[in-house]
């Protein structure tokens, strides 16, 4: 009996984790990526290993997903994470009034949170605003997105997965109402070919809608852009968050020798064509300066924008859309053999992969349990060996 073949479209965090999960379940896996690994949303995200603290008041489902996956990733990829923790700090009376709701939210979502003395917070973060009124410590962390994805893919390849970069899905192959493969184009040579598959997983992030349309279906996804500003200096050791509901410029993430301020939020039609509004950049600086007064005195290293693959909710503003994820089995749309996984965050990529892999196995009548909570990932360096 032949091993079922699953094509995964996208080699960002979700696609990489999905390939890893399916390969561990002994399926034949091919990953199709139109660019380099993590060259889309994953490679331009905030690099934050979420504790869930940002969502524990406004989006508890996402907060619980984040803290659960935070703890899992610490087990399976410890060498790839900077476990520096995070501080939620109050700078105004409104922030201070939010603290009790925040601590209650953390407790409800099982997020370890400690109310620490301001004096201690300032000792831990010397450049923190000296006017800070309160600080709460949570288990935030930092990762490097490219290596994050490479580690999942290196492990997937160890179990037989094939990763095809610079290869674009141009169309789907059908037998009746069932997807039986994809047409692809090598973006380096221009050569085209057809790849057969028993099932296709669409893990293309904010491009998932574009991929789904090629199969004649749609997904309720809203590409939501955000601007980030990278400083040419690392001003903070821990992740710094404003102690309030998520808003523009309320977080500064240390990444290697830089600090990254983020982020704004607005919907876009094409995730490949995002114009960075100058006023968004200015807002990142002015808001970041409130957390770290030295922000304005440090040279800007880069400004960037990327689209988040959020799930649409009727009548809900982009800032308020949940950061949770969903799987869409397009058999409900009359197309068999095609599943989309959308939404979520890089922190929850492994959980997203587990969810979609469970559905894949059910549809292919394969009895294989998820192993990714416990199997340590291979070194990201092995991807190139």
Outline the structure in words.
This protein has 385 residues and is α+β, with helices and mostly antiparallel strands. It has 2 domains: 5-41 and 146-220 and 323-384, FAD/NAD(P)-binding domain (3-Layer(bba) Sandwich); 48-143 and 222-311, D-Amino Acid Oxidase, Chain A, domain 2. Helices cover 26% and strands 29% of the residues. It is built from 8 helices and 21 strands. It has helices at residues 13-24, 60-76, 93-108, 118-124, 145-158, 208-214, 278-291, 349-363; strands at 5-9, 28-32, 48-49, 81-82, 86-90, 114-116, 134-138, 141-143, 162-164, 167-175, 178-186, 192-196, 199-202, 221-231, 239-242, 251-255, 258-262, 266-267, 300-311, 325-329, 338-343. The strands form 4 sheets. Strands 5, 6, 7, 14, 15, 16, 17, 18 and 19 form a 9-stranded mixed β-sheet that branches. Strands 9-2-1-13-21-20 form a 6-stranded mixed β-sheet, sandwiched between helices. A 3-stranded antiparallel β-sheet has the order 3-8-4. A hairpin with a 2-residue loop joins strand 16 and strand 17 (258-262). It starts with a strand and ends in a 22-residue tail after the last helix. The mean pLDDT is 95.
């Amino acid at each position: 009996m032949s091993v079922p073949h699953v094509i995964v479209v996208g080699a960002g965090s979700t696609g990489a984790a999905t390939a890893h999960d399916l390969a561990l379940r002994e399926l034949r896996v091919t990953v199709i990526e139109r660019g380099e690994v993590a060259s889309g949303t994953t490679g331009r995200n905030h690099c934050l290993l979420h504790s869930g603290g940002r969502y524990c008041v406004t989006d508890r489902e996402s907060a619980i997903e984040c803290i659960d996956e935070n703890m899992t990733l610490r087990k399976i990829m410890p060498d790839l994470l900077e476990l520096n923790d995070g501080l939620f700090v109050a700078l105004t009376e409104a922030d201070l009034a939010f603290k009790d709701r925040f601590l209650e939210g953390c407790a409800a979502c099982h997020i370890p949170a400690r109310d620490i003395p301001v004096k201690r917070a300032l000792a831990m973060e010397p450049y923190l605003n000296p006017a800070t009124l309160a600080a709460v410590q949570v288990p935030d962390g930092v990762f490097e997105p490219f290596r994050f994805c490479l580690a999942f893919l290196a492990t997937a390849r160890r179990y037989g997965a094939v990763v095809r970069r610079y290869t674009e899905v141009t169309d789907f192959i059908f037998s009746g109402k069932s997807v039986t493969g994809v047409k692809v184009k090598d973006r380096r040579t221009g050569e085209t070919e057809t790849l057969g598959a028993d099932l296709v997983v669409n893990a293309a992030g904010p491009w998932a809608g574009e991929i789904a349309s090629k199969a004649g279906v749609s997904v309720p996804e809203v590409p939501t852009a955000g601007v980030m500003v990278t400083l040419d200096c690392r001003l903070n050791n821990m992740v710094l968050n404003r102690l309030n509901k998520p808003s523009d410029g309320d977080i500064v993430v240390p990444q290697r020798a830089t600090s990254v301020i983020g982020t704004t939020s607005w919907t876009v039609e094409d995730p490949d064509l995002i114009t960075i509004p100058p006023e968004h950049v200015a807002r990142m600086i002015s808001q970041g300066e409130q957390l770290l007064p030295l922000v304005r005195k440090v040279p800007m290293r880069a400004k960037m924008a990327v689209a988040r693959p959020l799930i649409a909710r009727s009548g809900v503003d982009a800032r308020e859309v949940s950061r949770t994820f969903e799987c869409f089995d397009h058999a409900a749309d009359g197309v068999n053999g095609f599943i989309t996984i959308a939404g979520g965050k890089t922190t929850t990529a492994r959980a997203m992969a587990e969810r979609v892999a469970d559905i894949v196995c059910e549809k292919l009548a394969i009895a294989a349990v998820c192993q990714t909570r416990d199997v340590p990932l291979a070194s990201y360096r092995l991807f190139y060996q």
